[in-house]
Design brief:
The structure is a homodimer of 455-residue chains.
Chain A (H helix, E strand, L loop, with lengths): L16 E8 L3 E4 H8 L4 H5 L4 E4 L6 H15 L7 E7 L10 H5 L17 E3 L4 H14 L7 E10 L12 E10 L4 E12 L5 E2 L9 E2 L1 H25 L11 E4 L4 H20 L6 H5 L6 H10 L1 H7 L1 H10 L6 H13 L7 E8 L3 E9 L8 H8 L1 H6 L2 E2 L2 H15 L19 E6 L5 E5 L2
Parallel strand pairs in A: 2-14, 4-5, 4-6, 11-12
Antiparallel strand pairs in A: 1-7, 1-8, 2-3, 6-7, 8-13, 9-10, 12-13, 15-16
Family (chains A, B): Belongs to the thiolase-like superfamily. HMG-CoA synthase family.
Pfam families (chains A, B): HMG_CoA_synt_C (PF08540), HMG_CoA_synt_N (PF01154)
Pathway (chains A, B): Metabolic intermediate biosynthesis; (R)-mevalonate biosynthesis; (R)-mevalonate from acetyl-CoA: step 2/3
Chain lengths: 455, 455
């Protein structure tokens, strides 16, 4: 009996990848220079971290509302009908519930879906900042699997990065969301070969249950884990490409986009990749993955030289991809996808024929280095349409700059609302929620959360 | 430029599914009859819920330790080398951390992995009790994707179901874990066609952040959601099979395994499937999915008649699959996989050529009805080897029955440890941890959790 080998097994879909992309960031932001003034450390955040501003929101918005906002926005702007979506993966590390997934809230957008039914495939993916990439890979895998039913997949990542006042991590916060439509004949194709991953157990960043939303952070350890994972992923990608008999990859990358807690760290990451390329080409006497990838990792002087030595490469390959992240801050699972949005908005159709290298990192630790190739696509979804939809310049200009006191006061309210007695009535001003965005109406006496959409 | 169409694109692996299976439940259990005595409701839990006993553990064991235990046990018993595993998906709704995944803890089992490196693919899948199925589907999709590197995938599901004393849900608790090895040439093949899913937003069961581990439960609503989802999944599976030009599925199912908060609910589920078969065959005037699937869902008299009318079918097709669940209780994400273990242990090689229908449900709501077909397999992984490894009769006999007072006292300690000040020293007796199991040594002053393994 082999009835599971069905006669009508579909052929594999071609060129699976990113069809469409949307990002979300709230209306309010605080400038890094204002934060430097308040903290008495001029240049530390603007030149040291290479950040310009940081988005924030009140208790009116959370990861559920941001996920709703960005998913609805993508579907509206690209005219994707609910019935076209058959798979929905979500990523977060700022969940508001430990059992009810954000995915389940998003199902309200599919109330009237007909055809194959709502996108019943997919759940919330949790592993610190890596969840968005896990969600994307799961979506691509589904499209390439035998179970695929011909519909598209949607990936949604949303997070709020908030650190305790007075801690070194405070200026590396932010918040935001990203939505990615996945399917065949994509303008940004996931290359199945150019891929390297790394995972290990570490205690650099975590959120033990408690009454505060702040993570426990060992900052210096996270930075080392990030660069170490970059090295490990780089070596595994190279090994995979070489084993397949393909050319070494170092010549082929035109653009680099990275998960960026702050922009300077991504720059250090690119510098480490460049070092590894050099080591490989020189065929140094280093014999294993590990020794290549972690060579002199703690050497700050070497790091500074590498960063200086790769300034031109950074400008040419990575500045477009880090432009938005610098102004929005860390959006955790959405960060690398906001980076991709930044690149596509700045380059548009010029990306045709180009190869992008993306680095996704989650503390704890997990990371992937992977590649998107810009090819000919379904005319419905193109680099131009993504560029047009994103409209990032106008959207950033429409934000409101707040003094640091407002950020601190709003943050304090978010913290107070975190484990508050229910029922809870949010105190944030609905005037600060953008038109078209979802926001929290109230938390009822059973801890159920109710959301509305601002007209 | 189309360098992402690589020359050495692998052919699709054949017959992807469950290669090996292991379950875990702690040493201690309480009898439902003892609970009935204490609650003064004879027959309510044994005949009403059709449950016999419930596993529980102290604060020495949690979802991290159980995940470590079951993963290590599977790899040891089936002699799977760490380097053979390239993908690791985890499921839980009892996470101990909102950012650091269980997956990251499991990486300690791969410290010395060489070859392609550790299983860097995969994260924690969260959507109430459905997470284990989401993890399994993601693992199968990976093996069928172009990115697959030829290694095997491991799926781990672990949960603790603990309800507040004095609530109707209390006797539907339990705890446990399951590990599933996924790859090609499997003895239990996931049929890519026999598949129906359903998802919607509902507030039947959730875990809002707080200082208690108990979920918020609307029990009656969960039961309706379960049966409604069963109906919706059944109709979608039928539609999918018929659209593909294959025969209607109702004749082909030999065994039924379901997610079982308590055994009686799974029985009601089977009864609803039987009703839908009857409706479809009679071609009644019901015109849509929804009307078929939810027809007279609230009619308790109809339900009782259906359950009575399907007693023989239940005995023949489902009793073997619910046998273990009755004695262990609800293990949330692991429940349906403990059911599969139960069936394979009771039937072994007799399953050859048989078709199994599985139902996975998660509150909130998401559900899938899917099928495993028992075919010829890689001689390394067979129905016989799974049966031999599981050894469920002996393992259940080795458990220790505790009076209700012990269960209540141990549960109270688990609750007290949930959001306790750190550092925290667990109070549970290590003597109650089985040899070979992992257990919590301590939570340090930075909320880091340290685990050991009992020799």
């Amino acid at each position: 009996m082999a009835t599971y080998r069905h006669g009508k097994d579909r052929p594999r879909p071609d060129s699976v990848g990113v069809l469409a992309l949307e990002v979300y960031f709230p209306t309010q932001h605080v400038l890094m220079s204002d934060m430097e003034l308040a903290d008495g450390c001029p240049g530390k955040y603007t030149r040291g971290l290479e950040q310009e501003a940081m988005s924030f929101c009140s208790d009116r918005e959370d990861v559920v509302s941001m996920a709703l906002t960005v998913a609805k926005s993508l579907m509206d702007k690209y005219r994707v009908r609910p019935a076209e979506v058959g798979h929905l993966q979500v990523a977060t590390e700022s969940a508001v519930d430990r059992s009810k997934s954000i995915k389940s809230h998003l199902m309200t957008l599919w109330r009237r879906a007909v055809g194959g039914g709502p996108p019943a495939e997919g759940v919330d993916c949790v592993h610190a900042c890596y969840g968005g990439t896990a969600a994307l890979l799961a979506a691509v895998d589904w499209v390439e699997s035998r179970r695929w039913d011909g519909r598209l997949a949607l990936v949604v990542a949303a997070d709020v990065a908030l650190y305790a006042p007075g801690t070194p991590a405070r200026p590396t916060g932010g918040c935001g969301a990203a939505a990615i439509l996945v399917g065949p004949d994509a303008p940004l194709v996931l290359d199945p070969l150019w891929y390297g991953s790394h995972a290990e157990h570490s205690w650099d960043f975590y959120k033990p249950l408690g009454t505060l939303p702040y993570p426990a952070v060992d900052g210096p350890r996270t930075l080392v884990q990030y660069l170490r994972a970059m090295g490990m992923c780089g070596m595994r990608l190279l090994d995979r490409v070489q084993r397949a008999g393909e050319l070494a990859p170092e010549e082929g990358v035109h653009h680099f986009v990275a998960h960026a807690p702050f922009s300077k760290l991504a720059r250090k990451g690119l510098a480490r990749l460049a070092l590894m390329d050099a080591i490989c080409r020189a065929a140094a006497g280093l014999s294993s993955y590990e020794s290549y990838a972690t060579w002199r990792l703690e050497d700050k002087e070497l790091e500074a030289q590498l960063v200086a030595g790769t300034t031109l490469e950074w400008r040419e390959k990575a500045e477009d991809g880090s432009w938005l992240q610098k102004q929005v801050g860390n959006s955790y699972t959405a960060s690398v996808w906001q980076g991709l949005a930044s690149l596509v908005w700045r380059q548009g159709a010029q990306l045709a024929g180009r190869r992008l290298l993306l680095f996704s990192f989650g503390s704890g630790t997990i990371a992937s280095l992977f590649s998107l190739v810009c090819g000919p696509s379904d005319p419905r979804f193109t680099l131009e349409s993504i560029q047009g939809v994103l409209d990032l310049g106008e959207r950033l200009r429409a934000r409101v700059r707040r003094p640091l006191e407002v950020f601190d006061a709003v943050s304090a309210q978010v913290v107070a609302s975190y484990a508050c007695p229910v029922p809870y009535e949010p105190r944030g001003d609905v005037a600060d929620v953008a038109a078209g965005s979802y926001y929290l109406l109230r938390v009822d006496e059973h801890s159920r959360r109710w959301y509305g959409r601002k007209v």
